[in-house]
From TrEMBL:
Organism: Pseudochrobactrum saccharolyticum
Name used for this protein in its record: Transglycosylase SLT domain-containing protein
Gene3D superfamilies, per database record: 1.10.530.10
InterPro entries associated with the record: Lysozyme-like_dom_sf
Biased composition (Polar residues): 900-914
Region annotation Disordered: where it falls in the sequence: 894-914
Superkingdom of source: Bacteria
Amino acid sequence: MVQIRPIEAGRTIDIGGVPDTRVDNSIGQGLAQVGNAISNHADMQNQMALRRQQMEEQVDDFATNQAFQRWQDDNALDFAKQQEGMAPSGKGFTDNVSGIYTKRSEEFLKSVPDSLKPKFAELVSTARNQWIDKGAAAEIDQRNNWYRTSITERQQTLQNQVFNDPTMFDAAKQDAHRTIDASGLSPTEKEKLKKQADEMFSLTIGEREVREAQANPASITGAADRLGVPAVGSDAIGVVVGKIIGVESGGNAKAKNPNSSAAGLGQFIDSTWLNMVRKYRPDIAGGKSNAELIALKTNPQLSREMTTAYTRENAQFLANQGIQQTPGNIYLAHFLGPRGAAQVLKADPNASIESIVGPAVVQANGFLRGKSAGDVAAWSAGKMGGKASSAGQTPADPRFANLSLSQRLSLYDQMNAAAQRGQTAIDAQATATYNSEKGALQLGIQTGEISSDQQILSSRMNDSDKATLLSALRSRQGDQVMTAQAMADFQNGVLSLDPYSSDGKKKVDAIGGVINQAVAPENRQAALESLVVQSGTVPQSTMNQLRAGAESQVPAEVEAALQAASRFSQINPSALGRRDGGSAVQKKVDDFDYYVNTLNLSPSDAARRIAEQNDPNKIRERKALEPAAKEFRKQIENTDIGAIFDDSWLPFNDPKLGFNEQQAAGIAADYLAIAEEQFYASGGNPELAKNRADAEMKRLYGTTEITGTKSVMKYPPEKFWPAKPNDGDPYGYVKDQLINDLAQAFPNDQLLNPTKGNDGYRGLVEGREVFIRNEGGLTEYRTMTRDSIMSRIVLVSTPETGSEIKSNQLPGYTVLYKDEQGNLQTLYGKQWRPDLSVVSAAARKQQDKRLETATRNQVSGLGMAEYMNGGDIPMGASSAWDSPEAQQVLPQPTVPNIPVPTSQTPTVKSGLDQQRTQLFQNAKDSGLLNAGGN
């Protein structure tokens, strides 16, 4: 059941009653407040109106002030514009500015509110006056600048006139002064400008003298007096030399100091004189003793020359010591020596001279005793007609009187420097002219235009050069005699000389010069080769041409040079190395010969390779690949080269490399060299390089089985010697001929020639004795021993082999035969080749047989019937069945047409020992023999 809370009253309830009518003073107070509020509102309204008026006035004042600022900005722009149009003299500019700004002021004030006019009228008036003042200042500046510019322009004109004509100096000064006085400049500025003008004209005269000193160095003489400064440098030297001679010797070349060795015009002591003559006149000093040179002190010309040279040295020494080059100081250096003079001039002027130069000098020159360093400096200056002090004097030339001492010293230094430059140029020109004349004489001696002593003696050469030229003339005349004799000996084939001596080389060069001038170009190489044969070297001019060609990047030039150089090297292996640059050419020749003879390249291809190697870019590329090339070479060192020549699929069928270890090593070396070259050519591609090397080896080398063993060799004869038709052993004829020749060459060899006894013949095969009953058995013995004999034979391909192959001739080979003792013997003859008449006869016989068969088949048809029954197709049946004569052109070895070199295989009688020696040397060169071979 819900409980409801009861309501309780909290306050009493108003149920109405009679209102209270009592009145208090609050109403009156309220009314008073209302009245006050109304009064305050009126005051507020007045205040607001006043404030509004003030704000309006403030706005007007600010706006007018802004307008005033813009007016001022416009005034500035207008002033600048007016200033740009100002007349050069500035005349009327102030009046113009005044009129403009007065009008602008009036116009501006019209726009100013009345209340502000008093204030801005004052501001505008002040601004106007400022602009007028500024205009007046600008007018004055413009006018003064106009004066200055006009004065400067006039002075420049006058300066040019004075420089071109120094006699205009005084007139120009007067003209310049008048121009300055006529200006409106201040008196102070006028005086300043006059002084500047005077200095300018004086400096202009000085500049002219500087120019004159360079063009004519002699004009420097007297410049110190003209400028009123102490003489130094070249001017001082010129003054001093003459005065030294006057003071020292009175001009007497034989004058001598009794207290010392001083003598001659310059009073040189002996040691100084000897040093000077040897230094400056080696042409005179050469070959003369000290006594002879000292005697030359009395030579007036030489004595003056040495005095001048010594004076120049002393002046330079003083300059290096920071001492002024005055005549007095330079003379003191001559008197005491440059070091002694420097010590005196740098010493305390009050120090005693003896304490500085020593008692020996004072004893030799008694007047010095008791004097101080300052006394001696004054004495030397007095000797030269001056004073010890370096203070300036009054210039002898009044035109320099306007310049300060420092300005005059500066001009003097410039004059000396200009004189030195001019003298240097004159000396250089004189030297060039002298050298040109000397060169003409030297050339004339060489060409023969100068042929007598008088032509040299009458020239203006000095004695030293005359002596040299006379010596050259006599040497040339001797050379001509020598050349004539050498040419006669050369033409007679009896030239004999030392190729290492200078005389020997001179003879070769002289003969080479004659060959180049007198021999036709097509015959020149042969003549030079003859010279190499007789002299053992080449002319230097030829060597220079060879070197230029060998180092060219043009293949044709390389080929021509290296073919010629190779010929010289073949004639005499040392010929090239005996001349300057020859070693470098020999290296190129070795490369060229390797490419041609070993790699079997054509001369043009070999030259192209070398030309590429001469290319700096190729050299850099090759250098970059060198590390990789070395690594590549290591990788292929153990390559099975024999496998390259094994075309079969059978194992263990690789041919043998060469005929012995030495030849195998040579073939391997060739392979490595070829592979490395191909590595560079392929840009460092090892796989491509190896493939190319393998192909190159197969092109250069091949296999031969003539000796019984399949061996790799260069130019295998089977490629070039024809096979004999219809023979079980196509090269049996070669073996038979070779064995027969060996038997003749080595009659005491039992394997080749069985010895005859009472009961028959006895041969020796592999250490076993073989008995042959009668002569009929010799043929059977020879057949039986053929393989054994051939196994002892080594065929060597030589450079001649390669040359013959390239010339399409039947190649020959060096033949080595190993006897029973194991020694290699050489077969006589430089090159051995078979007699092809046997092959020619066999070929003709085969052709005749084929012609007979073809004719028979044509008549009987038998050949075709045999073919139909399974026999061979008749020879020529397809194309020449009806023409038997056509059988004669069936493919046959072109044996009869192979040209044989003119040097046919020699007989046993023809120089056997000499031929063996040559062949043995070929074998050594081919690597077949070691150092102990026979």
